[in-house]
Every structure is written in structure tokens, then in C-alpha cells.
């Protein structure tokens, strides 16, 4: 049996969310229970960009495709974890060139965000030139361990460059216990339709 690495965030009310905004936190409410003589049931109220999630192009492109258009075939298959824990600030083209990235690759970025369970306000992000480099190569998917693939860039050029090049964006993976190297990736978003993103369970197998 292969080793399986769960790289998903746990959905809970105390989890890290984007910029620690209270409104972004999931809410779990008990709606009936055994003390009432009923089966125990809970209501989950959750933003579609909570924890480990897959972005659909609609998130950043007015005419973008919705989440159901992303096939499972594109979310499952060979992948490579890149160790970028040394990067401070932003991931640039120069940071990526040494990895000899190939067309169609699924890439996972392991950065300082994987080493913290708190939201890092200055998390390492993929800069516009890095995104253009990946788009020009023609990669298939990029996953990052931060809750966003970019920050501090007007007009969201990283998201939009990747989405216009049909590169799938996954945010919020957990890679602390995963070494750089080659794996089989499985990402399973909820089967939602017509919207901009979906929370997902994600894991790697070696």
C-alpha cells in the first residue's frame, strides 16, 4: 500500500481563514440532538473558499467557467511538490526556473505557510511574472499552501493570468509533513454547480 498524505485543512470554527476575518469563519450549529429525542444533526455554514478549495474561473473572470466544468481527470494524477520554504515575499519566475517545469505538470508549492497553522499576513505568494511563466509553459494545475495564491497585486493578475491559460488553482493545501518530490495527487471538490469555488478533500500518495 502506498503512503497517503492528507493535505486538506480540517473544517472547524477555529480554523485559519483569509486575513482572519470573522465573517470568513465556518459556522457549525447543532439543529437537533439526542436530548430532544431526535437524531443528532448539524448545520454547516461555509464560504466556498474555506480551507482547502478549488477556484473556478468565475471567481476572478466575469465570463469565467463555474466549478462543475473542472473535471476530476484534471484533479487526479501525477504531481510534484516544490520546496519553496526559503522564499520570502513572492515566488518569481527566477524562483521557478531551476525546477525545469514541464507542460501539463501539476505543481504543489510548499512554502512557509505550511509551517504555520496561523494565517500569515505576509504569506509567500505567486507573483505575476511567475504566473505568466507557468502559463506560458502550459502547466495543468498549481496548488499552494496559503489560502490565496496572490496578495498585494492590483487587479489580481496572478489569478487571471493562470485562469485565462486554463491552469487550475487550488489553495489551502497542507504540506508540512510532505517532502519535495513526485506523487499521485487526488483532489475531490464537492459536487457543486454554477458557482465560483468548492471546498475539497485532497491527498497525495507516494
UniProtKB/TrEMBL annotation:
Keywords: Hydrolase. Its EC number is 3.5.-.-. Signal peptide: none annotated. The keyword Aminoacyl-tRNA synthetase does not apply. It is an enzyme of class 3 (hydrolase). GO terms for molecular function: hydrolase activity. InterPro entries: KFase/CYL (IPR007325), KFase_sf (IPR037175). This is Cyclase family protein. It comes from Cohnella soli. The lineage of its organism: Bacteria, Bacillati, Bacillota, Bacilli, Bacillales.
